[in-house]
Amino acid sequence: MKINTFRLAFLLGLSVVLSACAGPFSGSFPSTEAQIAETDPQAPALDIQSWQTEQGAKVLFVASDALPMLDIRLVSDAGSARDGAHSGLASLTSALLGEGANGLSVDDIARGFEDQGASFSSSSYRDMGVISLRTLSDPEYREPVLALFQQVIASPTFEQDTLARIRTQMMQGLRMETQVPGPQVNKAFQSTVFAGHPYGQPSDGTLDSLPAITRDQLQDFYQSYYAAGNTVIAMVGDLDRAQAQAIAAEISAVLPQGEEAPALARAQPLTKRQREHITFPSAQTHILLGNQATWRGNPDHVALYVGNQILGGGGFASILTDEVRQKRGYVYGISSFFSPMAAGGPFQVSLQTGNDNADAALTLTLDLIDQFVQDGPTDEQLEEIRASILGSFALGTADNSDIIGQLGAIGFYDLPLDYLQWFNQQVRTVTAEDIRAAFQRNLASENLAIVSIGPEAPKVMSVATDADNTANEEPADRAP
Questions:
Q1: What is the pLDDT of residues 349-364, one digit of tens each?
Q2: Engineering a disulfide at 292: which of 169, 203, 206, 269 sits with its beta carbon 3.0 to 4.6 angstroms away?
Q3: CA–CA gap between residue 335 and residue 358 (Å, rounded)
Q4: For the whole model, what pTM was predicted?
């Protein structure tokens, strides 16, 4: 039986990792090429238990005694898509959590967690606001940590002086972003692909929007979007079901009371090519290509994921890296991905190239994308990447921090509890024709936005049809 070099290297590495972690083993560990070829990595079988609290919070729990730890993650529909007219509101709210609560200063909170060996954090994304806690599971340490955690989430104070300090830090960050190309082109891409949709707003606000956000708005946002009925409570750790239920009930009871936020309208794809260029004095040109192409719940999700790993998400094994970087040396780096969210998700290709190669790199990349959409992958390409995905996916829940991330996503996006096993099985059975059809349904290569930053806008050197004349038009230009 023949095994390709890529898969053999991966599985040999996997065998080393597993053998290092294994306890007493009753059989011989696979060590030859034939034995490795016959291995069949399985999806992690997590025993996910789920229920709903009295206040409407969805709970997902996995008991794990691998470590004497407890991880808790609150995932609320409180991302920047809920900012409304106040860009940066969600990010600023999240940044202030843990900075003060009734009767507690930021130093009290930080010292209270650290003295018990616990960690607390909060973060904000386009879809969600996340509050995380990690603590030792022994009741001697766990109980005081949980009491402090509940006090912090029950009564964040959003003090005016703390608001001023955090807002200043965020505005300094925005000013620094004008000195480097990456953040600028990413924001331009988002606003171009999601023009008119909440996903198109800058998540961290603007120099104009942040000063206008008030303490009352922060409090209202927290009360509305961090409500129990709008939150998933994910827990992984050394607990039994009864303990987990008691902890979830206590957390749910101290959160603001309220219902699930209304669903966002589905983002719509661009129907013609858009060009956007930011003039910037740099030795490189950064180019982002893409369009609104998917969403959480898209039945083509697995086919798109696997296909993208072949096209540009699989590192040096991907088509884009091989053709644009390895064979021709046009770029320093190139990659692609789908990023599904609740109401949409872009397909995006990112490349950085020397200014002299920008036109050739852009042209070749567009041609390769178009060819992949039209023809799909070969069977050989699919089998190589399938082996890689299945092997890495088997290690995707290696520790509690991995599991808690999976639980948060499963709960937030209302995925089935056996989602990991379902995904694994779909990867096993997807065909090259499935991938080709999925790309054709979800991605029109002629409508990809081209967003760039550098001294000059890159040009498309050849146009396949007269219908794509917009590729030769001068893009709109933004001041630095």
A1: 999 999 999 999 999 9
A2: 269
A3: 16
A4: 0.87
